[in-house]
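Q: Start with the shorter request: fold the first protein.
A: Done. Sequence, then structure:
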Amino acid sequence: MTFHGGGWWAFISHDDKNERPAISRVLLWRVWHFSRPYRAKIIGLIFTILLITGLTLLSPLLLRQLIDVAIPDKNTTLLTFLALGMVGIPLINGLIGIWQRKLNSEIGEGVIYDLRRALYEHMQRMSLRFFTETRTGELMSRLNNDVIGAQRAISDTIVTIITNIIFLIGSLSIMLLLEWRLTLLGLMVLPLFVLPARRIGRRLRTLHRQSLEYNAEMNATMNETLNVSGAMLVKLFGREKQEMARFSKDAVMVRDIGVQSAVVSRAFFMMLSVVGAVGTAVVYWVGGYMSINETLTIGTIVALGSYLMQVYSPLMALTNAPVEFAQSLVSFERVFEVLDIPVEIQEKLGARTLENVDGRIQFENISFSYQALKEGQIGGLAEVARMGWGGDRSAHLKRGKERQNGQAAANGDVPEGAPEGAAETRWALQNVSFTIEPGELVALVGPSGAGKTTITYLLPRLYDPTDGRIMLDGHNIREISLNSLAHNIGMVTQETYLFYDTIRANLLYARPEATEAQMIAAAQAANIHDFVMSLPDRYDTVVGERGYRLSGGERQRIAIARVVLKDPRVLVLDEATSHLDSVSESLIQEALQRIMQERSSLVIAHRLSTILAADKILVMHKGELVEQGTHEALLALGGLYTTLYETQFKPTEPA
């Protein structure tokens, strides 16, 4: 984005035919849908526009009366009234303008609120696939930059268009009544500037969309490298200079697009001023001859000149109104792009709410692929142009098209078993069937990438199986309400996540209505209460970003306490004790044995103590369930479990 080559006019006159403004009825209807709750305020806003426009149109007439009547007739009374009118009109206009601004702000801020709620609610309903395929910074950009842009479309652009239409009709009507010949003469120069104005308008729309895309990319870069995990990764690998270079590249694009937009906008206003100067000069020149010949008064010429200067701006703006309006709707388009992404995990109409869950779980011929999207579904924001780690924009544009055509694999970091860029279908799970009886503890074992984590993600419907079905107490989990499913399944994930809040708030997140005694009991069960009480602020201690003020074991125990407080009927533990020392793990195992009683438990375990306590062991390999049974029975088979026992469990933790 530089200024050499074709000069400033080169990038002003650039016209991408694919970026021509297109305003569809569907888009306008959806915009109106968000504006409809504010109909009364919109009517009030239009009323204020009429009042302000009417008063503004009086000013040149007062000036005409002053020059043609009050001064020649030496009428001091009229002179005084006219002078007071010249002061009173701006004052009244200002007071009405305050009311107008209040209505305008209420409409604009209301639309922002409604759009943000709609976007946030829709994002909350998206499956885990959506978040693994979309960069967080882009989502933040949609919730902030694009929503604010949509607000401007309603509170600024549309209001400006309405104001210009009303003002133009009023001004031209008065001018034609005063002197129709001079009015037409002043307007004759306008067509000479219509075509360049349209071209500039299209260019501004293209620049505006590019600006939104570049800002989204810069936000994504900041989000990836300025969170705790990203910052730690950058420091550990000494990549500060490279990340600074990547951020600088993004920032340069944002800077250059901003400069281009500013120059193009200034060129537009320059043309407007030239139109005004030429038209006004012609009117004063011809009007001057008519005044000399005494066919026109000086006051009428001055009034016409004032009206003409006020007419050019709205007339030029309305000439380019379709382009500017389409440009202002770019933000709405980007917001609707998110709202139109299908919800993959949908709750069935009339879904069942389970009150008393026994905890019998059945996986029936489950197959799953992270890239197996149904027709019409999009994993993430595929339509957004994203820069690669090397800044290759075209590669990501191409990749977005491939994903929309169903030819590419999932993007970004996904759980074990997810493919990376393969065009053919790769299965994370294939024909997996097993049953967990109420109260049973089932351990999942297998090498990395075997599909263990995928199984734990399917049970609470973070993903839905590609084939097969999962039953809970004889009910297909697709027919159970999502809230009911979440209430009865407790999960401690491999990567513990805590909010930037107090320990108390993080614990009560699982059960806000819990009493202090229940919260403390849960913390004691997870062996974290004594540690919390040793802190200066105890349960009101702020844990920091992602809980990084605490050690890995402390975070893990808080996460376990949070699930204990939830008191679910089904427990899912993904490496739940992987960050604990042997003493803490022993205490946690005792606590887990107590809370697992009369509950169905599915545990991914790499420690022999957990495996030996299991009622059943499921051995996974390359997405398939290859063995299942007790520890002794599996050892007797002499298969994969025996190999895992000999190489992983037995050497590190003898029985």
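Q: Next, the second protein, separately.
A: Sequence, then structure:
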Amino acid sequence: MDFNGYIEFGDRGTNCTKEDTTRPFGIKTNYNFLLNKFDEIYSNTDLIVIETGDTTRLERYKNNLSSELYKEHKNEILNEIDNFIFNITNKLNENTKFIITVPYPSNEAANKGDRLTPLIIYEGEKNKQVLYSDTTRRDGIVGNVDIAPTILYYFNLNSSEMTGRILKSKDVADNLNYIKSLNQRVVNTSTQRVRVLYSFAIYEIIASILALGLIVFRKKIQSKWYKYISLGLIGSMIAPFTLLIIPIFGATDIVITYALLVSITVLIVFSIYLLSKYDPLNVILYSAALLVFSLLLDIITGQNLIKNSLLGYDPIIGARYYGIGNEYMGILIGAVLILITVLMEKYSINKYISIGFLGLVTIIVGFPKFGANVGGTITAVFTFLFVSTRLIGQKIDFKKIIYIGLAVVGVVGIMAIIDLFIIESQSHLAGAINQIVSGGPVVIYQIVVRKISMNLRLIGVTIWSKVLLSAIIVLGVLFYKPIGLIKKISLKYPKIAIGWSGIIVACIIGFAVNDSGIVSAATSIIFLISTVLYLIIHDLEH
């Protein structure tokens, strides 16, 4: 195509196909014509795009074929494509980049959740490599948006205003099996994710409602149920840790995944209960510490567990590829606030050491090479400064909120500078800034509108909105029945109460600044609702 948009050497005519009554719709790709056309224009053309077409026709015709005939046609078509590619590669000179891509999966693969499609770049006899791009930071998984910048880079053209990044290659032993194994893991995560997380969310709702019922109707319920419901609340805090480590076991069957989730969670809950010597603050402390330090360690070592966790993220839908997702971001902020305030409550840990730890967590969440979560960074800075101000005995007023807001801007700005000018593989923060610089203030407006639209959509479709709503209802009931119970537990544990107020702030800020803020708010509030109910029940029991 030239500057005027004319394609001088292309051909879309009837010669590209030929009649064949044994094929779907009675036609098939004319590979001999395509090959001759390629020979004709190869030396005079910089970019050639060839679409074979037969697989698309087969998919559209599939309902008219038996499964055996469909497979027979598919194998025959793929063999013809394979021979065509072989003939093409024999004609290429050493300077040619040859890309084979499949834009869409077959209907059969899509129905099974297997929606990642092959992308191959051939540049001569180079073996044992997989593709990589800064879009995904995942060996073997790249974005379709990366193809166009890669082509422009080949011609020494600028692609800075495009969404995608330039494709690179990395050496990987037995690369084909690596790709197959990677695809299987990703598909398993994608297909199991919704069902398992839905179950966890329902469990969280039921556990909190049962605990509320126990508190409200405590005089009518036998004392033995106090322990079981209390342990169920601790299970709500342990389950995210279990979901983090399940990928280690390589489970591919959803029944095994459920079995591991339940058995490991139960084992850890009872172990913590025994190790804590039935001290309620130690139970909460050990549960929060286990999750916080596991998450932080995984984030700084490459997010290998989060990437494959059902509570992590799904690269098939392209919501996130690296760093910490909003599910675990909310969990981490909620757990950190509980961990710090329980330590200060029970062991009188120095408040400045605690504040320093909150700062460290903020850096890990926001640093482009670690958490790379911009919304999480804003949430963490605002929330942790709010909590830190209260921990040092100062009241929150309008002036301090302004200072906290300025601190948020400063921290995000520092992360952006690091991302733009220091880190080699830039994250989506640098990409957003580049878009704002090139597109002007309207880009900021578009980002805000996108976030609001996404949250409004998610409120109606995600189970996490039900978790958040149920937690708000439970807290609302506790404020009025039994009267004074929330005030009493807050006065008994004043440091933890500050942590609870911080979680409420994290829910509000997280909801406002994230694409899926409803998710981060719902996962943060798990640690508020579970610890409040647990400590109230423990007090009532004793």
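Q: Describe the second briefly.
A: The longest strand covers residues 98-101. The longest helix spans residues 175-216.
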